[in-house]
Write a structure and sequence with these properties.
DNA-binding, 69% helix, mainly alpha
DNA sequence: CCGGACCCTAAGCGCTTGCTCAGCGGCGCG
DNA sequence: CGCGCCGCTGAGCAAGCGCTTAGGGTCCGG
């Protein structure tokens, strides 16, 4: 029991904004459980147990199990949106911004693959109005990425005939990292990020730097 | 041939190998339900109801609900493997084989997105030994694709420093089609296949054939 | 007419689920 | 010290779950 509680708590303090302490422990425990077995296969007893408390304690901090998922999804998608926004709003060419966007976005999905798995693959378990709200966040992320690719296509840096389709593919690539990534795999989150950034830049037909011909920094 | 009955079940033609008729109807109903709500959120009563029979009838044809998922996963992954094998075993350059592999593999995931969603995203609900068996099929699919990319890298057609990583990314791209594709979206399965084939060929740095209306740098 | 093989159903069993509620213990404050 | 507050628990409820069982309708060879 105590071991389970400690393990839940040693997780990243990505939930630092959640108070009080018991509510935060519950979020951490729920993310772990949802990522492992999926929302519907996880019981409230399991979540409470991992957080080191009785099943009834969960309902002091959250009205329902679905509200827990909603809180997790909200925080996670807001974080993902901020990452994309930081890259999209930076100075630099479309190539530089796209590289940064894919690198950081894919890296986050690898590093926080448990959280990412929950927020990307358990969405359908949300109630209709919560689902709609979260979908709005995703659409904003999508628009930011699409604008980068559109900019590159307009300026001639990229060769993308189908900007929405290419955007979809890039986003799909990054998101799906959460499905296959494991901490004990051969790649670090950093490596996944740079690999994916390289692959995507070639996918959009960006000029190839540093490979055969050196480019001025 | 019971033409009328078969036409009524035309949605589920891909399960033609499943007999008797009631067992096939159950498979079709289960795929539909699993794809919509997920394995754990689907009840045996729902499956039986969609198939037009009582809950108890399910257990005449399948020992458990998990066995239904196992049958579905087996048939689906064997089909996916055959598609990949056909492309990998064809005559032609690595470029031609990769284009064909991605085009047909991605197209199948779009056209049969309900089945694909179940077999790719509900795997964890299988029991350990069934899971291991299905994972073996996936590994064979992976190897076939990796060999194509390796061939292209060896012959100099592709520029892929990280062959396993690139293989993972390509497979991930195609599989994830099942997650976002819907029949009422703007793209047909055929269009998804050709778009993805183009994107992947550029991703591996294949020489650019007479491109359409691209804007040369 | 029989008698069993084959499919199917109505009813329901044992269990787990999400969630509730009366009450308890330790803390801060008067 | 006494008292209220609040986070929490033990016990448990109604509902729904996967799955079982006893039996009924239909067809067929005899």
């Amino acid at each position: 029991m105590a071991a389970a509680a400690e393990r839940a708590e040693e997780e990243h303090e990505e939930w630092a904004g959640v108070t009080p302490d018991a509510a935060r422990r519950l979020v951490g425990a729920a993310v772990e459980a949802f990522a492992e077995r999926g929302y519907h296969a996880t019981t409230t007893r399991d979540i409470a147990g991992r957080a080191g408390m009785s099943p009834a304690a969960l309902y002091i901090h959250y009205k329902t199990k679905e509200e827990l998922l909603y809180r997790i999804s909200g925080i996670g998608h807001e974080k993902a949106l901020r990452i994309m926004a930081a890259a999209a709003g930076a100075e630099g060419s479309a190539t530089e911004r796209l590289r940064d966007a894919v690198r950081t976005f894919a890296r986050w999905h690898a590093e926080h693959h448990t959280t990412a798995r929950v927020i990307q693959y358990e969405l359908q378990a949300l109630g209709p109005e919560h689902y709609a709200e979260i979908t709005g966040l995703r659409r904003r992320t999508d628009r930011l990425l699409r604008q980068i690719i559109q900019d590159g296509a307009d300026s001639g840096e990229f060769r993308a005939d189908d900007v929405p389709g290419t955007t979809l593919a890039v986003l799909s690539l990054c998101v799906d990292v959460a499905r296959w990534f494991t901490a004990d795999g051969p790649r670090t989150p950093d490596e996944v990020g740079t690999l994916y950034a390289d692959l995507v830049l070639r996918m959009v037909g960006a000029p190839d730097p540093g490979r055969s011909a050196g480019t001025p920094r």
